[in-house]
Amino acid sequence: MLRTVHQKVEIYSKKDALITTGVLVDVTDHNMEILGDIFPHFDTGETLKVCAYDDMKGICWYSAIVSFSAIDRIILTDYHLLDVIQRRKSIKVKTTFETNIYIVYDVDENKITLENPIKIVVRDISAGGIFFTADQIFFEGNQFEFYFNQGPKHLRIKTLILRRQDMNNGKKGYGCSFIDATEKEQDILFAFLWEVQRLQLKRMQLNS
């Protein structure tokens, strides 16, 4: 079920071209009402697609029919779910950003603050973990605090290295899982993932 508390949504044509964005303010079993600053004119009976994300399911696509259209408000009816792209924790995006490891854990899981932070480059990220490259050598089972420095809210999340692999540039790559990330931390990560995925999709459409 769609959330109704000022949920941001995107409106697409039947051919998956992004038209505009808005805020979902009301939803029933059959209708959804979306507000925006300036909407283009939609014909009554026109079929649109609505993209939103669900806290549990992930990114969801709906098909709906225009029943009312105004400059700042539309009402869509007979909506139904078309697809759930990925579930929340499985959503992964390719990215490249640098961050530092400031805290590691010893074998007894005591925190150790590093005098010289270790620079890593995050290559992909999900709500459940990261893959990064580094000059520093790590081993499977090592634990550290991942410092997420993207977006308005920064996080420090306890992270476990699950695997190590050789990269083409001579560096090592490490696949990691977050340990006991809170729901709030996952919400922040998922909002970042959703925005990156949205922008990547938009760029693909512009280049197609």
Automatic annotation (TrEMBL):
Start and end residues of each PilZ domain: 86-192
GO molecular function ontology, one term from the record: cyclic-di-GMP binding
Organism expressing this protein natively: Acetanaerobacterium elongatum
Protein name: PilZ domain-containing protein
